[in-house]
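Work package 3, deliverable 3.1, input record:
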Amino acid sequence: MPKVSNWQIGRDCEYPYDGHRPARQWSIIFDLNKCIACQTCTLACKTTWTSGKGQEYMFWNNVETKPWGGYPLAWDLRILEQLGRQDWGANGEYLGKTLVEAAPENERVLHYAPVDEDWMYPNIGEDDCGGGTVDGGMHQASLPHDQWFFYLPRTCAHCTYPACLAACPRKAIYKREEDGIVLIDQSRCKGYGECVRACPYKKSMYNPHTRTSEKCIGCYPAVEQGIQPQCVVNCIGKIRVMGFINPPAKARADNPIDYLVHEKGLALPYYPQLGLEPNIYYIPPIHADRDYLRQMFGPRVEDAIEAYRKLPEDPRASGLLCLIGSTDRIMHRFDVKKGMAYGYDEAGAEIVRVPVTEDVIVRAPFDAKLGASRHNTP
Amino acid sequence: MNHVLHSPRNPSRSGALRRAALWTCASGALLAACKGDSKPAGTPPTPARTPAPPISALEVRAVSGDLSKPDPEAPYWAEVPAGQVALTAQAMVTPRSAKTMTEAIEVAAAHDGKYIAFRLSWPDRDKSEAGRLGQYSDAAAIQFAVKDVATTPVMMGAPDQPVHIFHWRAQYQRDAEQGKPTMAQLYPHMSIDMYPMEFKEAKGGTPEQQEQFSPGRAEGNPQSYEKTGVDEIIAEGISTSAVQAGHSGAAKGTWKDGWWTLVITRPLAVEGGSVLKAGAETGVAFAVWQGGEEEVGSRKSIMMSWLPTKVL
Ligand code: SF4
Ligand code: SF4
Ligand code: SF4
């Protein structure tokens, strides 16, 4: 089996096809410290793409509450517990097996098959501190660990080495050369569901009406026009940015994605040990349990949290975070100078500028000119 | 009769409609509950039956009767001997079944000068017709070589060595008999406020606009439309199978006491496909999928070589 280079695990890993990086790679970064689980992203995707028959349960974008929530249920636990030990070496090299390396001999990847019931509770555990009835008390108080949680928004990761693509015996799944978006060819898919079984993130879903499998399309019609995906531009918390990521050796410090992932090490891939080189990246939630975060984001999570805490001393990084959510357009470059952050399109034209620190305006409680008191309640 | 195969309508939609769909935020179709009926309880154990003798070649006898209609109970089957052929789990490509789910298939064949019919029987504990997520259909297929059977690889053919396949699924037969199941039939307890362009009081949009919300249909994928019982397929190697329009074949399967009995019938000559002639020697191959054992696609039991076949 061919070996492909996977920078996220610091080594080469097995993949059924030869390694090939597309000309550009679609990528989203999420700042998990800011997500409020408003689900606006989920509904933005749902109303745009999956309101048809057979898509009733289908949320290409979902937001789940960790550690207990999951859509489908326990997708993460079910694949992690099969994979066995997942140790990392001191130099950042992953010592365990990837899903392809751990595949039984009759399969292409180690996997599990979710059933209908698993997809039926997309919000399970969300803001769910009650114990059922009012007199049931706080079930959070009875959890077997310290009280912490965070919201995890997820789309397809348009992986560099997609498990869905690897598993499809019809070769109906392909990765686009122009942007790395992974698509299921809806004219060729026969609904075998191999991708639904194989994707560890469970981002390929079965449509029983069309009898084909469907997945997040990365909003390619928008991306082709230089516009970020629906779930990104509609994000209420302004926690997301979509752009193009380069592998570390080709990273550009003025590319917003490269800067946050490679230069600052602020954003990390999730479950990199699965070996797919997923292209959604997370700024880890700094108050969540470290062991849990290390399992999810790998050994560099401590450094990422450290870098996040130092943001107030870092005008360039904090300037970039201010740009996130401030434009619908795809930012290919950014700059921060004299207290202002700028975003540029592919041609180098400015598409957005925001102050790194907004002016604070203090207004007196009484407006003498109008002779009226100022209240913030009607 | 002239049977001609051609590729089905496969309109490649322009990006414009998709882009339009992106900016037209249709109403959210939200799921309130979708608990469905559980699988029927286990079926009684397979009763013993006398197995047909193993065969290494198949004779297709001429019978009198109309073979254009598939009929597993037709009287002419009494005149035709059945033989047993061994199958093994497909082992060339992954993903594949961990073990052989269908170890043998019983085969009989007859022709009436125009049509040729194959009667296949195999044991299968449960009748599986698929429908919902993770449910797979029982299925069987007969494969013929389009060119010289001696040089055509039995595993789905090869470039310029096409194979012609008749692929029956219990799911497709159910479509033909009862119509393609609606979402409400598949998930009886599901509730949905509305589908785009199908509001309760006012149906809107052209069929083409409505299809934009069903990607498989919008792309003209034969998989997404109601089936006639058997798919006719041309393949030139693994992962290349393409469903053909034309439907020169027909099939009828019945499941009883843990056995499927299936008749697939086809014209002897299919232009653009395989052509069988009385007096000529050819080869056929069979495949079986046990849906209840999660067999689908490359997870199947197959023959490792062509079964020499003589049309008498
Ligand atoms: S819209 Fe943004 S803040 Fe709201 S749930 Fe989605 S990612 Fe989180
Ligand atoms: S996240 Fe899953 S569905 Fe998306 S590209 Fe990766 S393996 Fe495929
Ligand atoms: S990128 Fe587009 S298709 Fe994918 S989850 Fe976001 S909105 Fe949905």
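Chain B touches chain A through 54 residues (CB under 8 Å).
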